[in-house]
Amino acid sequence: xxxxxxxxxxxxLMDNDSYLDKVEYQVDNTGDLKSDLPLSWFNxxxxxxxxxxxxxxxxxPAPINESSxxxxxxxxxxxxxxxxxxxxxxxxxxQNINGQRDGYNIMFSFKTFSNFxxxxxxxxxxxxxxxxxxxRYQFIDHT
Length: 143
Hints:
Blueprint (H helix, E strand, L loop, with lengths): L1 E5 L3 E6 L2 E7 L1 E2 L5 E2 L16 E3 L8 E2 L14 H14 L32 E3 L2 E3 L12
Parallel strand pairs: 1-6, 3-7
Antiparallel strand pairs: 1-2, 2-3, 4-5, 8-9
C-alpha cells in the first residue's frame, strides 16, 4: 500500500521505506515552498491513504529498486508482492471490506477492526470454527 511522505525537500509517493515517485519543492518569491501534487498518484487502483509530514530534517528516502533480489522489506520484488497477494487471496482478504485498508483490517469471519497498535487478540467463533486470525495474512494472536 502506498503513502505520501513530505520532507523539507520534496513530496514522495512511498512504498514501504522507499519511494516510487517524487516531486521536489520549488521556492516562490516569498520564500514559501510550493509543489504541484501529482493527481496521477491518486488516480490509481489503490491510491495512498496516509500522509506523513516530517519536520525534523530526517534523511530523504531512497528510490525503490524493483529489480533488486535483496531480502530487505523496503526493496520487495514484484514476485514477492505477487506471492503476498496470493496468500491474501487464499485467506479471502485480498479485497476491501467497507472500503478500508485492503484486507489489513479483517479478522476471522470477516469482522473488521481499526486499531493497528497490536493484534486484536479476539477469538471469534463462526460456522463451528474458532480463531483469533486477523489481518491480510490472517496471523493468529501468538504468531
